[in-house]
Model the fold of this input.
Amino acid sequence: MTEQNQSGRIRPRRRGGVGVPAATGRRRKPPARGRRAAVVAAWSAAVLVLAGGSGLGYVYFTLNGNLKSVDINGALGKDRPDDVDNGSMDILVLGSDSRSGANSAYGRDEGGARSDTAMVVHVYEGHKKASVVSIPRDTLIDRPRCTAPDGTRVPAEHRAMFNTAYEVGGPACAVKTVEAMSGIRMDHYIEVDFTGFRKLIDKLGGVEITTTKAIKDPKSHLDLAPGTHTLDGEQSLGLVRTRKSVGDGSDLGRIQLQQAFMKAFIDQVKSVGVFSNPAKLFDLADTATKAITPDSELDSVNELTGFAKGLSGLGADDVHMITLPVRYDPRDPNRVVPLEAQGRQVWSALKADRPIPASATADAATGKADGLVK
Done:
C-alpha cells in the first residue's frame, strides 16, 4: 500500500502494532484539515478553506506569517505509543479557555488556561470517513508526568481533571495525557481560541442551525426560540459555551451542542462557495490561519494544504461523533469518570481503524441534550 504525504511524495505504508501515528518521529502524512467546541469548528474551516488553494506568492507569505506552532515532537521525544502506519490519521483538536488578550471579553483572566474542548479526530484509511471522540473537560483521569513549556517538571497525578493537563503542562502535556488514556499516538495537534472562532464564523456569513426547544443562557448571552437560526460568530460562541440551560446542566450536554454545531459548520463551509471567489477564500484563509496553533509539522501553508486536501471530501454525514463513555463520579457528581470497558472498545476500534461499536456508548452518561440542535 502507498500513500501521498503532505509534500506530494508517495511512500509505502506499514501495518501492525497498537498505536496510531503522531506528532513526532516518522509520521503518516495523509491530509486532514474557543472555548468548547470552537476548536473543531476552526479545524474544519482551516482544512476546507486552505484546501482551496494558496498559490499566489503574496498569499503564501501572508498566510505563512500568520502561523505560530508548537513542537510536540521535540517536547515528547520517544516516550509515546508506537508510530504505526495503517492509512489512518489521529488529530487532537483542542480549545483552551485562556481569558487573556482579546479573549478577556469572555471572562476573567485567572493566570492560566485549560482545555475546555478536546476532541480526538480519527480519519479512516482512504480519508472518506472520520470518527470524533469528545473528551469531557471534567473527566477524572490519571495524568502522566509532564514537562511544562518553561522546563518545570510536573508530577503525575491520580484523579486529576482532564483539562488540567493543558493548564499545568501546555499542549505537549495535553497530547501526552490523551496518548496515555487511549494508547493511540496523535499525528497532529491543532488549537483554536475564542476570538479566532468568532471571526471565522462571521467571515463565513454565519452558520444555520435549528433548535427544537428554546435556549436561554444568561452566562453565554444566548437567547434562541425554537426554530431555524443563522448564528453569527458571537451567537455561535454562545451556543458552544452554553451549559447550565441545556440537558442536565453538565458538560456532557454542552458537548452534544458542540457536536451538532460542528456538523452544521462543516456543511456551511462546503456550501458557501468560497473556492469560486478568490477574495473571500483569502479572507477566510487569513482568518483561519490566525485562529489556529498547529503542531510544528503543520506550520507552513504547504504542509497545511497537503494536510487539508485529503479531508476536503468529508461532509457532515461522513463524520461519526461520540463522547468518551463516562459515568458521573460517585464521590463528586460534578465530575465524571471513564467507563473502562467501554473506553477500551472505543480506543481499540480506532487503533484498528474500525468503526466505533454502538455498544461502547450504550450505558454511558449523556447529559440529556440530544436532539436539542440539528
The longest strand covers residues 115-123.
